[in-house]
Amino acid sequence: MAQRWLASEFGGPEVLRLEEFEVPAPGAGEVTVQVRAVGVNPTDFKRFAGFYGADPGMLPIYPGSELSGVISAIGPDTTIATGRAAVGDEVLAFRVTGGYASAITLPAADVFAKPSSLDFSQAANLLLVGATASDALNVTGIGARDTLLIHGASGAVGVSAIQQARLLGARVIGTASERNFELLEGFGAEPVAYGDGLEQRVRKLAPDGVDAAFDTVGTDEAVQVSLALVGDRDRIVTIAAAQKAKEFGFAAIGGGSQASAVYRDSVRGRLVGLAAEGKLVVPVARTFPLAEAVAALELLKGGHPGGKLALIP
After folding, report:
1. pLDDT tens readout for residues 153-173
2. Do domains 2-126+282-312 and 132-257 have the same CATH topology?
3. pLDDT at 117 over 90
4. What is the pTM of this model?
5. Between residues 11 and 256, the one the model is more confident about
6. Average pLDDT of the chain?
7. CATH code given to domain 132-257
8. CATH match of 2-126+282-312 with 3.90.180.10
9. How many degrees, rounded to 5, is the angle at CA 5 between CA 55 and CA 304?
């Protein structure tokens, strides 16, 4: 028997419960994975917190959208997204339903060979933030010689966006607290402290403003500074301030958007390839046993985990 977490009612992390279940055998187009690590993301608790609606018909909710592990069974005539696979192969998967589990049977099209450059915890956290960052860079049209301002650049999405923007030849300025300046500099970004006077501090680095801005935090400061520094509002994007985007005429993206979902799925293979080449890394701050998923989510809700979190079955 395997274990998995589920929420049979809406609420905070305390509504989760751990149950035993029988993992179904894989059919055609499916594989079974013995999970080695599970990525922990804000969308996990937002689902059972009612952020995306609280229709009782949505229950029970099985959190977890990305994971890594080892293939334990393969359905007939089945290949994974990166090609042929065998029992014992190390893989990662995204987009998953019910990833907070010790084993899972899932569509093979969402499973990719794990880059040897990443450990299981890193691999389990690669694709959600990576695809989100790629979506933002695509919407804003980032290219060589552009200057990009990232609000909340030391967060997981921000760090992935820095790396991907630099690979495109862009200059990156990132807001963060001073304790995270070294982290940003290590990835090739120019850090600035958020808070009063942010616009002026950015202008010291970019006197003519910036070409594009990516907001990962949703604060009034992030929105106002972006509007002041970017001449073309089509090149401002947020993942955290959809209402302000509607009000001020700039872009908001999210996995709930059909366009975003299609794009993000389309770039998974490319992101796995970048990681395999050592060009995309994933800082992991802490791991928790699978049985301590509630504690991991409480830390994540606090807003400053210092990097990605992973559950280890």
Report:
1. 999 999 999 999 999 999 999
2. yes
3. yes
4. 0.96
5. 11
6. 96
7. 3.90.180.10
8. yes
9. 90
